[in-house]
Amino acid sequence: MEGKKNIAIGFLTMGLFMMYGFLLIYLRDFAPNKLEWVNSYSLGKHFESRLAHVHGNLFAVLNVIIGFLLIHFSKRLNQSGTISWLALGGLLMPLGILSEVYFGLPPILVLIGAISMTTSVIWLGIEFFSLKGLETK
Description:
Blueprint: H1 4-29, H2 34-39, H3 44-73, H4 80-89, H5 92-103, H6 108-130
């Protein structure tokens, strides 16, 4: 069933990035060096961490939505498996941001994830645009 893994992984990813959000709140409000963290709000690791949190949750929601649509329309869509895997590959973007922040890795995962998610969304849009019989009366 195309889309099931997108929904499951989407919700799991959303939960993990929500927990990461709690860590960011702790660092901002309760950590011993919170003033240093707050002063770097729009710079460096703090900014990149917030990008990862936001994109992680956005891409998780996109996977849930894409998964739902693929489950309901997979028999009428071409390449639903490819779209599914591309959407999952999009999760490499927020993971890539975190790997840059915490491990100093190059941004290759960010680029792969961004291209993958963008491709899946555009491809799915084209697939739906070309479907016949979905017009409302």
